[in-house]
Design goal:
By secondary structure, chain A is mainly alpha-helical. Helix content of chain A is 74%, strand content 3%. In chain A, a hairpin with a 3-residue loop joins strand 2 and strand 3. In chain B, a hairpin with a 2-residue loop joins strand 4 and strand 5. Classes of the chains: A mainly alpha (329), B alpha/beta (254), C mainly alpha (286). Chains in contact: A-B, A-C. The structure holds adenosine-5'-triphosphate and magnesium ion.
């Protein structure tokens, strides 16, 4: 028993520490950028999965990131707020907006919910384009300051002028997010979400406010999208209405699905593999969309549980082969 | 305890339920019977808040509950089962029951996410109660089985167990015996008997006249959404209009 | 504002409405009959337009012939997609939607690698202006109105008069009931995809004749189509017509009353209000 806990702590410890060590070995602005994108995509795909857990397919993540990015930017640029407060408010505003539109939205079941969330993303982009006095329209906003330095006089002074430090920052955001998402999923709320996913009428009949909980799941998921959007605008130091459009949202969905939405690790794997792999095959850049689509179709049609379902599948296949051999012997 | 007054529901042009009056006293077991499409399930949906009536009202323990949501009514003690098998297929049998203890005891969002002492205590309590319910309905031996893989009769029984876990005062059972074999019907009838003895108020939809007559003190007969008869099982058996309705629907009274 | 500007913008509104309705009808047919959202619908629209472009420029055929050929080809593509892609995923709306996203990536990039990213254009067969009561109306806009509403009328006749059409209506209103009545869902799904894709191709070709064609033109059409079906009622066939008319007219008339930007927002705002109070749309059923 003690040994098992030790192994558990060790393996998770290594998994946690390892990403922090990467910049010591591989450097360069481009690599750092890809690493940051990977970590962002992990947060996004994992939070999308939380919404999925309650039986809803959301395509609102792009819209929520846009809301987060503009909120954080405007609070910093126009009101001079601390970037940290702005980041938190970015997530909160996304969650509040999701909560407000969520109530009418969750009355729509299944695919209809997905359709209105696509529309929400389109709507946010359009708002950002048209509300020029606030957003400066399609041109977007440039020269957004990087996150404020963290200073404890005499002890600590972390600035975020270097991309590597931004990578460390987003890594910390990711760890906190994953811990929160994990805690929610493995709490009774998570159990309730999964019940609603299987049968919302039955859940409702034993006293679950299914509409409220679906909105809660949607709102929590969107909180993380808002934060990530806010972070990205501070890191890239710019934001435009179509930075996170329909296609961006779709990619998050692809990470989650390819990795496998059944397990917590699924979206993490999916985001990691599908962000890193195309960079490895950079010479074949023009085939990248085909590669993506190909992987997606392969998973949709042949691996319903995604990459996380692969070991199980292989095991059954191996088991069958083994059995055949035994029978022959 | 429950009073249904002038309850009416139209689907487009179809009057699925029209001007229905029924009242049920505490501890009573009332049967709701009628041929296919008579509107029985619609009455359940109206009483439990899954549908809103076109006209009429539903009063429970003196309070008008006509426009309330199902989850709210579950909190008040009105719990129903479903005609089509309705369970959480990916959960184990035990987890189905644990889930159904959603309201009692209530564990708040922060309690559960932060995994506090009080939440752990309540979880333990729920687990204990869940096992008790499984023993009561006879599903304890399959507690660890994934619910979706159960045999049909067990799934139906699990449906009832889920409703019981929500601790109803008024239990509405929609054709509990459908798809069960003779032996399972027997155990389920015994179970309902036991629930009756514990003082639970029950409204029961049943196709099978004999089962309904055995279990219920009073029977309400619906046809084309209208109440055509109400009375003791003996009265109903003799009632001309009831016999006609069933024969008209091509069914034979057992 | 003079009367001719107003008439011109009303005509513009109707021609936009014609396009939106054609796109939305396809989406809503597929949605209500197969219970999936075909997100690659805009790509079908785009390829329909490219089809006409290549057939008229490379093969030198006349526009109308090209339109017929391209429409039939896209209808055929629809059938193939139904068989290969959507039928295996029936009942799994989320995976079907994701598969259609895969189709977006594939179709868009196939066209991109064949045709390149630059916009192309071909001549509209409808040129010149028509003068009515001293108001000049361009024929190309008018042709879209005539085509669009002619097709809508034809579709309604088809639904009214043919057995297949009746079966489509039955499934769109009550899937389970229709299946119980012995309606062959496979066949009707194929018919829905054929019709939906054919309508999208016609819409794309008509738009291509006035403006230009490019590999990314489908996104706009998809978003407009989604807006229309949300407004009109998800899965409702008459709703798509009503919704298309409303959004088309708003898009056509509002720009002369205010700025184009605000006009865009008004249409979306109307939909948000509809969503808040009646999420099933104007004529959708719950
Ligand atoms: N949601 C609905 N929309 C439209 N019509 C409905 C709906 N629910 C039920 N109906 C119709 O109302 C009528 C009564 O249905 P209901 O399910 O209440 O009958 P029932 O007495 O439970 O029949 P059964 O014995 O078959 O379960 C039927 O004609 C049915 O088709
Ligand atoms: Mg019934």
């Amino acid at each position: 028993m003690n040994k098992r806990i030790l192994i558990w702590i060790l393996s998770y410890g290594i998994l946690t520490v390892f990403p922090f060590l990467i910049p010591l070995f591989i450097t360069g602005p481009y690599v750092t950028h890809i690493l940051i994108l990977t970590v962002m995509n992990i947060i996004l795909a994992s939070s999308l999965r939380l919404i999925n857990l309650s039986g809803q397919l959301s395509l609102a993540h792009g819209g929520m990131m846009t809301i987060g990015a503009y909120t954080s930017t405007l609070l910093v640029v126009k009101l001079g707020l601390s970037s940290w407060v702005a980041l938190l408010l970015a997530g909160l505003l996304a969650a509040v907006i999701a909560g407000l539109v969520g109530f009418p939205f969750v009355r729509l079941k299944g695919i209809y919910f997905a359709i209105v969330t696509i529309f929400l993303t389109a709507m946010v982009t359009l708002m950002a384009q048209q509300w020029r006095s606030l957003t400066s329209g399609s041109y977007g906003i440039y020269n957004i300051p990087r996150p404020d330095p963290i200073v404890i006089p005499g002890i600590l002074n972390i600035t975020f002028t270097s991309s590597v430090n931004c990578y460390y920052l987003v890594l910390v955001i990711m760890l906190v997010s994953l811990i929160m998402l994990y805690a929610i999923e493995h709490s009774r709320i998570g159990l309730t979400f999964r019940g609603i996913q299987q049968s919302d009428s039955l859940a409702e009949s034993v006293g679950v406010n299914t509409a409220g909980l679906k909105v809660l799941a949607f709102s929590i998921g969107c909180f993380f999208a808002g934060i990530t959007g806010g972070f990205y605008s501070q890191y890239i130091m710019a934001i435009a209405p179509d930075t996170f459009g329909f296609l961006f949202t779709v990619y998050i969905l692809i990470y989650m699905t390819v990795g496998g939405s059944g397990k917590f690790i699924g979206p993490i794997l999916g985001a990691f593999i599908l962000t890193i792999l195309p960079e490895v095959m950079r010479p074949l850049k023009q085939f990248q969309p085909f590669f993506f689509a190909g992987v997606l179709m392969l998973v949709i049609f042949l691996m319903p549980e995604g990459i996380v379902g692969l070991p199980g599948r292989l095991k059954t296949i191996a088991g069958r082969l083994f059995k055949e051999q035994q029978e022959r012997a | 305890m429950l009073k249904i007054e002038g309850l009416t529901k139209h689907f487009g042009g179809l009057a699925a339920v029209s001007d229905l009056d029924v009242s049920i006293g505490p501890g009573e077991t009332v049967g709701l019977i009628g041929p296919n499409g008579a509107g029985k399930t619609t009455v359940f949906n109206l009483v439990t808040g899954f549908l809103r009536p076109t006209k009429g009202r539903v009063v429970f323990e003196g309070k008008d509950i006509t426009t309330k949501k199902p989850h709210y009514l579950a909190g008040k003690g009105i719990v129903r089962t479903f005609q089509a098998t309705n369970i959480f297929p990916d959960f184990t049998v035990l987890k189905n029951i644990v889930f159904a203890h959603y309201l009692r005891p209530r564990i708040s969002f922060w309690e559960t996410v932060c995994h506090t002492q009080s939440s752990r205590r309540k979880e333990a309590e729920i687990l204990q109660r869940s096992h008790k319910i499984l023993e009561l309905v006879g599903l304890e031996p399959v507690a660890g089985t994934t619910a979706g893989t159960l045999a049909h009769g067990y799934k139906r029984l699990l449906g009832i167990a889920i409703a019981l876990a929500a601790e109803p005062k008024l239990l509405l059972l929609d054709e509990p015996f459908s798809g069960m074999n003779a032996e399972e019907v027997g155990t389920t009838m015994q179970l309902i008997d036991r629930l009756e003895q514990r003082g639970l108020t029950i409204l029961l939809i049943e196709h099978n006249m004999r089962a309904a007559m055995n279990l219920c003190q009073r029977i309400v007969v619906l046809n084309f959404g209208k109440k055509i008869a109400e009375g003791s099982p003996e009265d109903i058996r003799e009632n001309k209009e009831v016999i006609q309705a069933y024969l008209g629907a091509g069914e034979v009274i057992a | 504002m003079d009367i001719s500007t107003l008439l011109q913008s009303i005509l513009n509104g109707f021609s936009s409405a014609g396009i939106y309705i054609l796109v939305a009808l396809g989406l809503t047919l597929v949605l209500s009959i197969m219970n999936i959202v075909q997100l690659a619908h805009g790509e079908i629209y785009m390829i329909g337009a490219y089809g006409v472009y290549y057939i008229t420029t490379s093969l030198g055929l006349n526009f109308f012939l090209a339109l017929v050929i391209s429409t039939l080809l896209m209808g055929g593509l629809g059938i193939v997609l139904e068989r290969l892609c959507f039928r295996p995923l029936r009942g799994q709306f989320d995976r079907a939607a994701i598969a259609s996203i895969g189709l977006i990536l594939i179709l868009q990039n196939v066209v991109l690698s064949i045709a390149g990213g630059d916009p192309r254009s071909y001549m509209s067969p409808f040129t010149g202006v028509l003068k009515i009561l001293g108001v000049a109306i361009s024929w190309d806009r008018l042709s879209i109105v005539l085509f669009g509403f002619g097709l809508v009328a034809a579709l309604f006749l088809f639904i009214r008069m043919t057995k297949t059409g009746q079966a489509m209506l039955a499934i769109s209103q009550d899937r389970d009931g229709a299946a119980l009545q012995g309606i062959n869902i496979d066949r009707i799904s194929m018919a829905a995809m054929f019709l939906g894709c054919a309508l999208a191709a016609i819409a794309g070709a008509l738009v291509g004749a006035i403006f230009s064609v490019s590999p990314t033109m489908g996104g706009f059409a998809l978003m407009k189509g989604i807006a229309v079906i949300i407004l009109g009622g998800l899965g409702s066939i008459p709703g798509a017509v009503v919704g298309g008319l409303i959004i088309g007219l708003i898009d056509g008339i509002m720009p002369i009353l205010t700025t184009t930007h605000i006009a865009g927002l008004i249409g979306f705002g109307a939909i948000i209000i509809i969503l808040l109070f009646r999420p099933q749309g104007i004529s959708g059923h719950e």
